[in-house]
Amino acid sequence: MTVTLKDIAKKANLSPASVSRILNNRGRFNDDTAKQVRTIAQSLGYFKNQSAADLSQKQSRVIGVLIPTAHTNFADEIIKGMQNEAYENGYELLITFFGNDHQQQMQTVKALLSRQLLAIFMLAVDITLPIHQLIKTSNIQVLSISNQLNDGVPSISSDNYDMMSQIVNYLYDHGHRQMALIGSSMIEPVVATVRRQGFIDALAKHNIKYNPDFIWGNNISYELGLQTIPHYGTPLPFTAVISSADIISIGILNGAKDAGLQVPNDLSIISIDGTELTQLTRPILTNAKQNFQLMGELAITALINNQLSTNTAIYTDIEIIAGQTIRTLKDS
Amino acid sequence: MTVTLKDIAKKANLSPASVSRILNNRGRFNDDTAKQVRTIAQSLGYFKNQSAADLSQKQSRVIGVLIPTAHTNFADEIIKGMQNEAYENGYELLITFFGNDHQQQMQTVKALLSRQLLAIFMLAVDITLPIHQLIKTSNIQVLSISNQLNDGVPSISSDNYDMMSQIVNYLYDHGHRQMALIGSSMIEPVVATVRRQGFIDALAKHNIKYNPDFIWGNNISYELGLQTIPHYGTPLPFTAVISSADIISIGILNGAKDAGLQVPNDLSIISIDGTELTQLTRPILTNAKQNFQLMGELAITALINNQLSTNTAIYTDIEIIAGQTIRTLKDS
DNA sequence: TTGAAAGCGCTACCAG
DNA sequence: CTGGTAGCGCTTTCAA
């Protein structure tokens, strides 16, 4: 029922081999016959059977992409970047959502590995050890995007340590001396650890003694933001907060409103990520914008250039975008 | 280099055929040998080559999913629903982002059609005619989710006509007589047309004369919301707006703030969609919540039950979720 | 520039 | 319950 190369070949009095060459623009062939072949293919409604091609070539141009279901909305931006770059280089993206159910995760990864992928890109995903090992046995290349992992997985992300330094400096320059870091107190993802350390070290550089109470919140959620003000009580013991994600920042903003605080008069906020969410609030959130789209593009480039070795760590720059949530303090 | 069924068969003194049966739990086989085979497979680090399987079976369990790049964030919810259901029934989802570049769209669809998919699901996507025809020639089943299309494409969505009626009734019951509909004045997507008609007819049922000026805005965007108040000027000629999407509602909310209006005292807002975004605002948005997750689940179910004929139109219920953006007017 | 033929890894049929 | 085998549609030598 389905139209195959053979069918086209028969109709064109050619061999399947030639048709294959023509339709793939590979090798040499006569331009005139080529034109004919293409029209025939068109008229017959031919669709390449990619499975057969992959099988025959023992390789595909498919990149598997893992996205967390609890879909941090910057994933879109990364994908946008990847998609363009992938399209131009003839790669396909196989995007798969990655839930929390471990059973399901395993099955998902196995399904991916069952299609001789070129590579697996993980967007902001933290994988468990068994899964990591599963991938390892398959010899498929892996890359973590936006998330630094240990386990020797190559990554493309912001330099989270340096980012904290920039943020602290920014706040310091605006006269802030007491600042809190919200949403990075977990031990697990390396990113949180790195940010904490960067925060502490940056404070030290300004001779500010680090107050352990000022690092709080072990998850990334709106609710965490909402609870932040109640957690510390008013008057707040600090003048500024660094929020580990935009969604947290919105929670803080609303929590402040609920507590009768004025932002930025009573509290300054700077938000890490800088997705569109930061533009939807009143006041608009000052943010440390990560270049997600570029991360996506670089991911493909790195793959093409064979740079996905174990120790690769590519950094993209961040940019601090002034909004309306940072108050400049007169004297310190 | 790669481990194949044959390798396992050799090691287990079996035929590839048997190994295939065992590893797929198909047909009859001896449980003991099965156990052996599985351990061997494990130890050899075997991964099924799905391309070969698909080729051999001339069929795959893969459902292609098209998501607009301008990623209305309810897509996530739909996918969540689909993913669970798909997982339980052994289907794979091949998610593909669908940009605006026509060239790229074509290539994307062709890539999809090159893998004997079971079906293509389109999430809130409006396809152009050539693409529609392309899909048609391939005989792959299609389903539009959350978006009603013409062209005889089966769909799962809310009953947009009835939704408008419910919304208008809700506003009416709260004393509103002058209401506007924002973001549905485009001619193109059928959804907009249906909503307009539903709006007008619902008003008529309450003997409210329909004012054409009160249907405004031909796109779905934050900016549209922001411009709404300036567009009409204050004092507003209506007491309530129905916003065609959450992102528009947020724009309206901010626009109102900018104009010095109090919501809901000076303006009531009800938002269509009811994604998490509605919970992030102050005041919280009253909304007509669509059941996106259910749409996703039903999509898979419909596929399984072979219900994807041309005229299928499955509706899921909406629910009006009271927030803080509707004022009850005393007298009318 | 084109063709013949082998083979990718798996499944399905039919025999045993 | 198991094995032999043909064949899915495509690519890729190698030879013509």
TrEMBL record, chains A, B:
InterPro entries in UniProt: HTH_LacI (IPR000843), LacI/GalR-like_sensor (IPR046335), Lambda_DNA-bd_dom_sf (IPR010982), Peripla_BP_I (IPR028082)
HTH lacI-type domain mapped to chain residues: 3-57
Record-level Gene Ontology MF annotations: DNA-binding transcription factor activity; transcription cis-regulatory region binding
Transcription as UniProt keyword: yes
Superkingdom of the organism of origin: Bacteria
Keywords assigned: DNA-binding, Transcription, Transcription regulation
Protein name: Transcriptional regulator
Organism (species): Leuconostoc carnosum (strain JB16)
